[in-house]
Amino acid sequence: MEAGSHVPVVTIDGPSGSGKGTISREVARHLGWHLLDSGALYRLVALLGSLRGVPPEDVAGHAALARAMDVEFGGNGQGGERIRVDGADVTRDVRSETTGQGASRVAAWPAVRDALLERQRAFARAPGLVADGRDMGTVIFPAADLKIFLTASAEERALRRYKQLKEKGSGANLAALSREIAERDRRDSTRAVAPLAPAPDARIVDSTGMSIVQVVASVLAAGRAQGLWS
Ligand code: DC
After folding, report:
1. Block mean pLDDT (10 aa), the chain, length 230
2. Could you say which of 45, 84, 89, 215 has the lowest number of CB atoms within 10 Å?
3. Which residues of 5-14 are buried (b: 16+ CB within 10 A; e: fewer)?
4. Total number of domains constituting the chain
């Protein structure tokens, strides 16, 4: 592709546990496109902050980490992910509920969001990008070619998260997870900057009761209908 030519972007936004991560990964894999897991960036800022002893309320300290951290997304050679930050393997810690809560807190700070803006946009490289997050279609890629807002009932989201954590061998408690998801939804959708909300031109997909295969098929069908791929 020539320099400066259009790189197609698909955004998949939605609340915690809506399945965005899995669906985005599958769609990106199917198309052979790049993937941006923006939630992982907020998680890394929170995790690094706690590992480095940055005080929990130090906004500038977290923004500085967001700007300087050296992040490496890769595979573990067995179909799973491997995430390194500043050379350290943080694959497991980055997915914990504690880190998720920390991410939701630092994500409410405009300075941290600003610090991550260009880093996220740099993921848009040929042949295309699938971007997963909360504000991909509203703030980071407002001109995206296809915008999906993925939801599911709060009960189903808590249950999916529970199964995911169990599969990874992490401890999980369904009632506590439901409370945490409700709290995270509240914080993510009521914050002043880039709150979780569908873009006006997003296609809303309610995945309650749908399988991963069905949701992926509906995203692929939407892109096909728009002539984004065949
Ligand atoms: O998708 P996730 O659970 O990995 O996201 C962790 C937190 O990061 C989530 O609670 C809100 C925040 N986040 C955000 O504010 N904007 C994004 N684009 C992605 C995540």
Report:
1. 80 92 96 98 98 97 98 93 96 92 95 98 98 96 98 92 84 89 90 91 96 97 96
2. 89
3. eebbbbbbbb
4. 1
Q: Cα-flanking dihedrals φ and ψ of residue 12, to 5°? A: -130, 100
CA Rg, the chain, in Å? 17
For residue 32, the model assigns a pLDDT of 98
**Ligand 1 centroid distance, CA of 165 (Å):** 17
For residue 188, the tally of other CB atoms under 10 A from its CB is 20
Give the CATH number, domain containing residue 15.
Answer: 3.40.50.300
C-beta of residue 132 within 8 angstroms of C-beta of residue 14: no
Q: How high is the pLDDT of residue 97?
A: 84
Residue 199: per-residue pLDDT: 96
Q: Does ligand 1 lie within 6 Å of residue 103's CB atom?
A: yes
0.90 exceeded by pTM: yes
**Domain interval for residue 78:** 9-219
The answer to the question of residue 121 being in a domain is yes
Write the burial class of residue 182 (CB in 10 Å: 0-12 exposed, 13-18 middle, 19+ buried): middle
